[in-house]
Amino acid sequence: MTRGTEQDLIRLLHGELPPDEARELRARLRREPELAEAFDRLERAWSGLALPPPSPVPAGFAGRVMARARSQPAPAALSWTAAPRWVRAAAAAALLAGAALGAGVGGSWPAAEKAPEPAPASALAATEAAEYSLAEGYWDVVDDDDAGGAGEEIQR
């Protein structure tokens, strides 16, 4: 199955295909059992993503929860004075170390020399003019990931 066919199956599943293309693809699904099997797998995966319908709350549930909450003893208030001295010292040391590290990293971070260039108007107009589907967006991301290549080091 080609990437274009898989895109068309996804677009059919999401209802994004024009009616005439959808009719042609459904006819092809009836003729080709392998393609129909692939579409069934996609359809099962898509329907598996839906949340089940919410179940009703049992009668009297809120009253039982409130009664149990009222019967529990009030929790002790949390405060820094109740914490052991070593916990307060460790928290203060972590706060100071984080502030020092942040100041060190922030001071050595290279400032941007120039603002990024805006996208050409022709590319922006082409994106706005064409209808962009969910399937095409997915394959654009996949193609971008494939183009990067696995195992290449990032150049700084």
Explain what you see.
By secondary structure, the chain is an all-alpha fold. The protein has a domain at 1-48. 64% of the residues lie in helices and 0% in strands. It contains 7 helices and no strands. The longest helix has 24 residues, at 85-108. The radius of gyration is 29 Å and the shape is flat. The relative contact order is 0.09. The model is unreliable at 150-156 (pLDDT under 50).
> Low-confidence stretches at least 5 residues in length (pLDDT < 50)?
150-156
N- to C-terminal distance: 39 Å
Rounded to the nearest angstrom, the radius of gyration is 29 Å
Q: Which descriptor suits the 3D outline?
A: flat
**If helices are DSSP runs of H or I spanning 4 or more residues, what is the number of helices?**
7
| Counted beta strands | 0
Helix content: 55-70%
Which structural class best describes the helix and strand composition?
mainly alpha
Q: Which range does the strand content fall in?
A: under 5%
Order of helical and strand elements: HHHHHHH
- Main sheet, how many strands, which sense, barrel? none
Mean pLDDT: 78
